[in-house]
């Protein structure tokens, strides 16, 4: 499984804002709940006077803590703003993971040649192979592990793993009766995904674990395949 961590200047800036917001939050709460110290004058049996600081128990100071309330509201607003912006960056910062180009043979429209180029999360090519497959439509599959939204603050993208390339048919009758070609990628689903899938319902660090696929016709066009926070999608190369 690939778990990209997308840390850049926007994430660092938002993390700094979050730190400031948490500091304001702690300071405002301490200000609202802080104890009071007063200098009191005492006199002993011999008439000697002395002064001593006396600390009163902590109590809410709503009248005196107006500044603390303002800081508290500001801190909560900054935290909300940080999580909202980081969630948006996470949802819109998709990763190109593959490029696919397929075409059917002139004398056999139900048989095709598929070139699959796989990329790592930095855009570097890791494989480039051509497969002969049955069908007139290619389908690329992956497994996904989606994390809770609050983990976006750390720039953590959903985990993904390309697992299969399959040839399918646009004709439903051929799809149900004809032989299919399946190529296993990266060792298939693997034990890691299977174990995470079983724990997804109870783990606080896993929002969901599931399979996902994207398909396009073998029309000779080249398609770029991207993974978002929720799954794969394809669009014509260069767009």
Can you characterise this structure?
The protein is α+β, with helices and mostly antiparallel strands and 239 residues long. The protein has 2 domains: 9-91; 95-236, no CATH class. Helices cover 28% and strands 40% of the residues. The protein contains 4 helices and 11 strands; from the N terminus they run αββαβββββαβαβββ. The strands form 3 sheets. The protein has a 5-stranded antiparallel β-sheet, with no helix packed on it. A hairpin with a 5-residue loop joins β4 and β5. The model has no long low-confidence stretch (mean pLDDT 77). The chain crosses the membrane at residues 12-33, 65-83. Keywords: Membrane, Transmembrane, Transmembrane helix.
Keywords for this entry:
239 residues; alpha+beta; 2 domains; five-stranded antiparallel β-sheet; four-stranded antiparallel β-sheet; 4 helices; 11 strands; transmembrane helix; membrane; transmembrane
